[in-house]
Design brief:
Elements lengths: L3 E5 L3 H13 L3 E6 L2 H11 L3 E5 L8 H10 L5 E6 L4 H9 L4 E4 L4 H12 L7 H18 L4 H11 L4 H8 L3 H15 L3 H10 L11
Parallel strand pairs: 1-2, 1-3, 3-4, 4-5
Helix pairs in contact: 2-3, 4-6, 7-9, 8-9, 9-10
Length: 214
């Protein structure tokens, strides 16, 4: 059964091509828009399953504005962001805004349709390499706010990669006792209870993201 979709792009030719791809899969494009305000109203009025919105829209408006409305008003529509080229900063902003998918204008039709299916199933579709860098950026920002030192950040990263205390000590050329002291300080700064608490804290911003490879 086809999905109900709202699309938004300020380039009419691309919008026409995107709508054609959607129609080929049996999806019904309920409304096509060129600006953020128009897209927001379309989502409110139509309550589509999916909205595919360009990051940059008419009159310098942004697809992020649509995401904010969907989240604030708790609308059921899942949002896919359309970008010319995926960048780390845009991926970070999209993740923070609760956007479930990111596609680029150079993607093949079958990839776009796979993204739509994945997002509709409740998962998230992000470019793997860019998403990993974006997650790292989010986590660095998070620990920076907690005043972790560079050595402590390195230590946390090793813990999240599964290294035990002795392995960390060998890699950093320090004693296992020093590793334990660093970890104690990290637990205290982040207010977590041990290694499991640290892993949960470190992964929490992206726990619900099931990154898909393109």
């Amino acid at each position: 059964m086809g999905l109900r979709v709202v699309t938004a792009d300020h380039h009419p030719m691309y919008l026409m091509g995107l709508n054609s791809i959607l129609a080929s899969e049996g999806h019904f494009v309920e409304e096509s828009c060129s600006g953020a305000n128009e897209a927001v109203e379309a989502v409110r009025r139509r309550m589509p399953d999916i909205a595919i919105v360009n990051l940059h829209l008419e009159n310098d408006s942004s697809g992020m504005e649509v995401a904010r409305v969907i989240n604030t008003e708790i609308l059921p529509t899942r949002l896919i962001l359309l970008v010319a080229q995926q960048k780390e900063r845009e991926t970070v902003e999209a993740m923070a805004a609760g956007i479930q998918g990111i596609i680029t204008k150079e993607m093949a039709p079958e990839e776009i349709l796979e993204c739509i299916r994945t997002v509709h199933e409740g998962q998230t579709w992000l470019g793997r390499s860019t998403a990993i860098r974006a997650v790292e950026h989010l986590l660095k920002a998070q620990v920076f706010e907690k005043s972790l030192t560079r050595r402590e950040i390195d230590l946390v990263r090793m813990v999240t990669r599964g290294h035990r205390n002795k392995e960390i000590a060998d890699i950093l050329c320090i004693s296992e006792g020093t590793v334990k002291v660093h970890l104690h300080n990290i637990y205290k700064k982040l207010r977590v209870d041990g290694r499991i608490g640290l892993l949960q804290y470190w992964c929490s911003p992206v726990a619900h993201y099931h990154t898909m490879m393109w």
